Amino acid sequence: MISDKEIIQAFNISDNEGYKKLIDAYGNYVYTIITSKVNTLACEQDKEECIADIFIETVKECKSHNFTMDSLKAIITVIAKRRATDLFRKLYRKDIHNENIDDYSLELADYDTPENISENKSKKEKLWNEVFKLGKPDSDIIVLQFFYGKTAKEIANLLKMTTASVNKRSLRAREKLKKILIGAEVV
Fold first, then answer.
1. In Å, what is the CA distance from 85 to each residue of 35, 39, 50, 96, 104?
2. What per-residue confidence (pLDDT) applies to 116?
3. Tens digit of each residue's pLDDT (9 = 90 or more) over 51-72
4. Average pLDDT rounded to a whole number, residues 15-33
5. What is the pTM of this model?
6. Are 51 and 84 in contact (CB under 8 A)?
7. Of the candidates 139, 134, 147, 141, which has an alpha carbon nearest to the alpha carbon of residue 159?
């Protein structure tokens, strides 16, 4: 195990050496914190970016105190838990607002042929027509929620409605769309 003292000495030589030692010493630890928090919400790339941000923030914090802290592990733990929570919130919010959009959108063809492209275009047009047939504000809610990734609260502010009514209207509109599209075999 690499000691904190060795890591600090490596940073005195060069940042690259310091980062190598820091990652060798705490890389698995940070990965475990991130994975335990975001579980299946994050892909490996999201986790890796978060881990990189954690190490960068840790080094900034250490440099601001001239590496005079008692424990690098304590600093890394606090920063990692905060970043993991931030990532979880970001991905969870994204997941909630985009859940089931695939149920109502068109599946992509396995390969692009003129027939598939034409068929998909026709299905997309039918989907858009059905969304706009819902009327306002339901069509606005669906478009803002699923195509612009807006939260119910943001939509409520934009449309001068309550968040609860936006959620209710969204649920009802999605149910209507589902029935219409299944009946028309568009889904």
1. 11, 11, 11, 16, 30
2. 67
3. 889 889 988 888 888 888 788 8
4. 88
5. 0.49
6. no
7. 141
